[in-house]
Amino acid sequence: MTFDAKLDGYLKDKKKLVDQALEAYLPAENVYPSALIQAVRYSLFAGGKRIRPVLCLAAAETVGGDIKTTLPVACALEMIHTYSLIHDDLPAMDNDDVRRGKPTNHKVFGEAVAILAGDALLTEAFHLMARTDLMPEIDPAKLLVVVRDIAQAAGYDGMVGGQTVDILSEGRQGDPDTLNYIHYHKTAALIAVSLKSGALLAGANTVEVNALEAYGHHIGLAFQIADDLLNVEGNKELLGKNTGSDRERGKLAYPALVGVEVSRQKAFELTQAAIEDVALFEERALPLRWIAEYVVERSS
Amino acid sequence: MTFDAKLDGYLKDKKKLVDQALEAYLPAENVYPSALIQAVRYSLFAGGKRIRPVLCLAAAETVGGDIKTTLPVACALEMIHTYSLIHDDLPAMDNDDVRRGKPTNHKVFGEAVAILAGDALLTEAFHLMARTDLMPEIDPAKLLVVVRDIAQAAGYDGMVGGQTVDILSEGRQGDPDTLNYIHYHKTAALIAVSLKSGALLAGANTVEVNALEAYGHHIGLAFQIADDLLNVEGNKELLGKNTGSDRERGKLAYPALVGVEVSRQKAFELTQAAIEDVALFEERALPLRWIAEYVVERSS
What we know:
Two copies of one chain form a homodimer.
Chain A: H1 3-25, H2 34-44, H3 51-62, H4 71-88, E1 98-99, E2 102-103, H5 105-109, H6 111-129, H7 140-154, H8 159-169, H9 176-201, H10 206-233, H11 236-239, H12 245-248, H13 254-258, H14 260-277, H15 286-297
Antiparallel strand pairs in A: 1-2
């Protein structure tokens, strides 16, 4: 098999596990209030790549752990990511009409229900992570560390902080420090904690946890730069969302700040650093190396 | 001292503990991104009565526990309540301009930051509840039960579900079942879990936990009916928000559905049921009896 075929198979297998678990954890569409549940499911099953949960499972696998044990936390990470997309797309925020080739949540369900669907997903993520019945093998004290880490990465000192600075920087003269703050907090923090929590739950030691978290920070930043590049040069059909929107909106982004070539070089360097981070795992880190390369080479 | 003076002193003492703890747990206003932190602090310190955290502490005290141990969870409950107010006030939801006598969060900070401040508060609530360093005496497995219960009461099967039905019922012909669903989920669920979690953390047995949770459901429903009555007959200055807004907006509310007199009678019966629920605690339930009576007699 080629590199692409192997990576593709790996991602598909893991995505299937995540999708099945999400389906099992979520209420059916006809559960009352069904407008809310439909809105939640609409965005959660809109065809996301499941990068964060796949990285959580991959981290557990890399340190020799049982990936099934990490599924509830992996799915919670996807719920947090999905809530952030629903809220980011709102008219008061990025005002996006299309996401993954489909109308955004508020376009289908209205703004009020979209806000509430985001709130419900964020809350359900923490509900799921506290379901010790689904994770009887996990030490409760360790699970609380994971909950705390994920909440920190998602909150004012993480994703929400990054999104705030992103929104408030629109149309302003940007600087690299601010852009790095945005990328690190808005994107890399949740990706890094996805790897860290998978490693912790699988019983990794401190050196292993730190290596996987560092890998996460590096590919998280690379992922965001690649996203910025796709917004400039990507194919709208493949992306399933509008291109050129960063520029139109005066959003702080890598290509506008340092140019396309320097951005590409930066993404490449981050990928190499990520691959270095996981060198200690030798052959077991093969999927993580594939994913690091995929992150910057993807077309959607 | 009169009844009012004793209750007043009790509520003030407990509120002070909660306010001091919230201050200690939150970042300072100048922490980056300061627009977000200011928005979070603006609503959290807008002069709320701290009913939910006070009930959490009161439950712990009633079963003879150490109330200090429950402070992080009590404060998390207030964060969840405050996030829900910020999001409920948004233009896409209830579109309220005034709350507790001050402009609502989005009026001061704009819609985008208000949405993000709500998201940050909800996330920080779960971060705080996972901070075992603040609660070394609490068994981690028990803390996870509390997190799970609170997340359930706050999510699609609790507060968010109730708010969804509330919003979607506006301007429609209401029925008592729908109104009861709204009140139970939107208000009573979080109040009941405030008592339940205080009791659990303080080491209550099952009979005690159930009694306090039942008390919470009863006063939670009474509290919401009293709120509906205040919206019809209350004093705008004392309330710090506009009256008559439920009617204008075609909101489903008790007085409109069954009349003012029947609503008053219902609130009274619920209060008596709540007082019955905690009879087993005898003299130790005195503050809970005061609070039950206060809930329906308050003017703001």
